[in-house]
Amino acid sequence: MLDLYYWTTPNGHKVTMFLEEAELPYRIVPVNISRGEQFAPEFLRIAPNNRIPALIDHAPAEGSAPLALFESGAILLYLAEKVGRFIANDIRGRNMTLQWLFWQMGGLGPMAGQNHHFVQYAPDPLPYAIDRYVRETSRLYGVLDKHLSDGREYIADAYSIADMACYPWIVPHERQRQRLEEFPHLAAWYERTGSRPATIRAYARAREINMAPTVDAQSRTILFGQGSQKAA
Hints:
Oligomer: single chain
Number of helices: 9
CATH topology of the largest domain: Glutathione S-transferase Yfyf (Class Pi), Chain A, domain 2
């Protein structure tokens, strides 16, 4: 059994997409980040960076004590290796998957996240910041669109953890001020990935957990006012 510490954010959706694809038994432990539950001592023992998702595998492969993981990319890679699926075995396919997984972790996620913040949540509009992150998000969409332009169905040819990592960050494209019709190859991939039964099930689970906005007047300080003391 796997315990998934989760909230309804793009990084949370990555892992439910994997678990539904792999049909692994798992239990969701909700961590309401808009109410500060990510700072609970018991959660910080699993995820010292006070971010979701986190995972506990109660039956790791070597048969040892339960294994705790944080960071969504690390969790996806661990799970792919655990089940022997969604990452290629050959060196070229494996490294293509890893490159695009790291691209999402180091580029698409952080830049789209800053886009979300300055476009939607900053208390005062900052045109320079908005323009910078909307443009950078657009550039990254263009990178993925070009990669997909050679006719491949998925990012690393076969469906993989690279697709699971990227898809949830494209879902809020309208809030990122992106027009999918400007990226036709990405748009086709987006529809293809979103229509997978496991993706549909993963987002249905999200609706069971939370339908309210993560960021509201009450949660702004919790989410955006963190300093070093919060990690204690």
